């Protein structure tokens, strides 16, 4: 039997992998993938809370509605980040996080 704890453990593992990816990677594309992994961990948590009625009633749709907003925000964030990365690559010929100092004052 699957319980809310199973969802939370899975989300915790995914979120920790995402944090590790953000802190350890040098490529901006891999950093973006790690951020998306963290957002998916949040979605898994919301699915678990929605399925087990922790939002104020049994099987409410609020968690699923929030998931749609999170996915929409993640898609917009990814589109903007890819556009910024492509622009930086055209100017610097690198997507290495350590080499991007264009925004320094």
Structural summary, described in words:
The longest helix has 31 residues. Helix 1 packs antiparallel against helix 2 and helix 2 packs antiparallel against helix 3. This protein has one domain: Helix Hairpins (Orthogonal Bundle). It is built from three helices and no strands. Helices cover 72% and strands 0% of the residues. By secondary structure, it is mainly alpha-helical.
- Give start-end ranges of low-pLDDT stretches: none
Terminal residue distance: 56 Å
> How much strand?
under 5%
The number of domains is: 1
Oligomer: single chain
Q: Quick one: how many beta strands?
A: 0
Tally the helices: what do you get? 3
Radius of gyration equals 17 Å
Biggest β-sheet description: none
- Please, what is the average pLDDT? 81
Net shape: elongated
Order of helices and strands: HHH
Structural class: mainly alpha
Helix content, binned percent: over 70%
Any idea of the CATH topology? Answer: Helix Hairpins
CATH-defined architecture = Orthogonal Bundle
CATH class: Mainly Alpha
What are the SSEs and their pairings?
Blueprint: H1 4-24, H2 28-51, H3 62-92
Helix pairs in contact: 1-2, 2-3
Summarize this entry quickly.
This protein has three helices and no strands. It has 105 residues and is mainly α. The protein has a single domain, classed as Orthogonal Bundle (Helix Hairpins).
